[in-house]
Amino acid sequence: MTRRTRSTWHIQSEGDTLTVARRVPVRMDVAAQATFPACNRLALAQQIRQDLWRRLQRLRGFAPVVQVVREADGLRVTAGGQLAAAAPDHTSAYVAEMLNTPHLRQRWIANASKGQQAGAAGREVRDV
């Protein structure tokens, strides 16, 4: 299933994999991975995408991509994106550092877990 939001972000959900991207087809010229506890995949992807864009928007032709895969013990996130020019050597390491920054992780997880706490009380929780 592919959805296109009004702000031209593409959201693709195929089984356990959810991808939020600026352009399709998706291409990752730079990327890094991190694991997260189970939470709302779409909310997590959107939070990470926003911070990724803020940090790398000056790179020529940068188009963010965040992919979240549901696994048995949580989520595996791959963040990065497409570039119009060669990426500086440190770019993937910079993305990995961002994914592992404690205060960012806490904020992302808290935001993506809000609906799940309500769901535990009997309300339906939507995780794209």
Task: Describe the 3D structure.
With 128 residues, the protein is an alpha+beta fold. It has one domain (2-116). Helices cover 34% and strands 30% of the residues. The protein contains 3 helices and 6 strands. It has helices spanning 41-56, 91-99, 102-120; strands at 2-4, 10-14, 17-21, 30-36, 63-71, 74-82. A 6-stranded antiparallel β-sheet has the order 1-2-3-5-6-4. Strand 1 and strand 2 form a beta hairpin. Helix 1 packs antiparallel against helix 3 (102-120). The protein starts with a strand and ends in an 8-residue tail after the last helix. Residues 118-125 have low confidence and may be disordered.
Task: Summarize this structure briefly.
With 128 residues, the protein is α+β, with helices and mostly antiparallel strands. Helices cover 34% and strands 30% of the residues. The chain has one domain (2-116).
Please describe the topology of this protein.
Blueprint: E1 2-4, E2 10-14, E3 17-21, E4 30-36, H1 41-56, E5 63-71, E6 74-82, H2 91-99, H3 102-120
Antiparallel strand pairs: 1-2, 2-3, 3-5, 4-6, 5-6
Helix pairs in contact: 1-3
- For the largest sheet, list the strands in their spatial order: 1-2-3-5-6-4
* Sequence of secondary-structure elements: EEEEHEEHH
Amount of helix:
25-40%
**Average of the residue pLDDT scores:** 87
Q: What does the radius of gyration come to?
A: 14 Å
Total count of strands: 6
Structural class: alpha+beta
**Euclidean distance between termini CA atoms:** 10 Å
Main pleated-sheet profile: 6 strands, antiparallel
Choose one word for the global shape: globular
Strand content: 25-35%
Count of alpha/pi helices: 3
Ranges where pLDDT stays below 50 over 5 or more residues in a row are 118-125
Integer count of domains: 1
